[in-house]
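Weekly puzzle thread! Below is a chain. First person to post its structure in token form gets bragging rights.
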Amino acid sequence: MSNDIVLDVESQEYLQIIEDLNKPRGMGEDVGLTTRLHKGQISVLKDLYVNGKTLILTPSGRKFGKTEVAAYALWRQALLNPGSACYYVCPENTHGRKIIWDTNRLQRFLGNDSAKYIKGNGKNIRNNEMIIPFKNRSFIQVIGSENFGAANGLTPDFAVYDEFKLFHPRWHVDFAPNLIAKAAPLLVIGTLPTPGDKNQDQYMSMLQFAGEDPMASVHVRTTFDNPINHLPAQKKAIESEIGRLRARGEEDVIQREYYSKLIPGGKKAIFPMLSVDAHSREHKSVLAEIAKDVDKLEWHVIADPGNTTVFGVLIVALNPYTKKLYIVDEIYEKNQINTSTSSIYPRIVAKCQALYPNSDMHDDWVKTMDQQAAWFATEVMNQYGVYFQPSAKHLKSKEEGLSLVKDMLLHDLVIISDRCTHLWNEMEKYARDDKGNIPKIHDHLIDCLRYGLIAMNYTMHEVVEAVRTKNLQSIMEKGRFRGRLDSIPNEEDEDEWQDIYDF
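Winning reply:
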């Protein structure tokens, strides 16, 4: 008796569809993909196919592969669910025709395998209406949001919104109720909105809803989640464009278009380079990173006492060898009942001891406070015998201090624990006013950070020297100078130094 398993026709068709949908194609093969989609795209669709979510919102960077995700989801719905009405909705008909239709990107999504699933082997595609009719009675239609009058008459089984930020605001109002009839999933994908986008408010409302509803999910994806963008030619082109934007001072555009990060202050943001991926860590991850060097770190506690507004405290650790700064905890007390010295200082000690066990507040911690709050230093000394040094903020202007913080962020020299939510909010929303001036509000913990850097005598010159030393040691260890120190190029020969250090 044969052990071969004979599949029925329906099962065979299913397996063939899955195989055709998931074949690696085009540039995906160049980066070694074993399936059609890369990991970033797959994780977006997992909530749709595995977790049963009905709203998936995916703010994505340029060239993440959003059109590929959209086309895959539409074709999969159409092929595996006979009789499905699937809609690809874009800002306007002309947008959809240009992006996905005239290029045949949607009609020939499966390459040469496409025609066998389409009614009439591809000959029945309705170009004027941008409709792909399938042999199993499903169809995919491309439609523009300016046709909101037609939205009422549609009964979708699945829909994709591409660049929802540019939609006519009436479209979703008229179309959304029709999704309920068949519990149709909605995939919203595209870049984040900017002030002036005509559907900005509705987009932000949907983003908030998706973050709160159990049947919805938000997946933020960047340009660099796509492995294709790490190929030499693609990477060079992207870095060149980012360089041009940065030269024009458009850091907010870089963060929005490539990292899917909305800069609250836009072009006026003071820390537009602040990034969750680069600068934020889970608290336990920060502690794990510094655990082996806990006794070698320089520990600082910096206070911005305010007994009528906010009493802010930052607790930070500096690695003197790598010049990396770890911002590990904070106090942000607005309740005036709790801003007295007898209330605040024991909280400071408790946090310090938890982070650096068995340390001595006298000898192991550098304690700094705003020099204008002499009352706090006096009271701590009288009550606890502990000295807080004044900030000496007069030695460096606020502009200089903020510039230093920005340089540190750009060089990934700042790690902020996710416990420091108030510092993060201050930095994220910190923006110049309409006259270009630096604000004097909502900056209590930012001030603490500036005071701390002054107390550390932190300069970017030290960072550059540390990098040079580290690279020199690495080069010597690899034997690139083949023996003699006097074979090292003269420091004044800039081209040779750049070649050695790959600057």
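Puzzle host: Confirmed. Bonus trivia for everyone else. Residues 460-501 form one domain.
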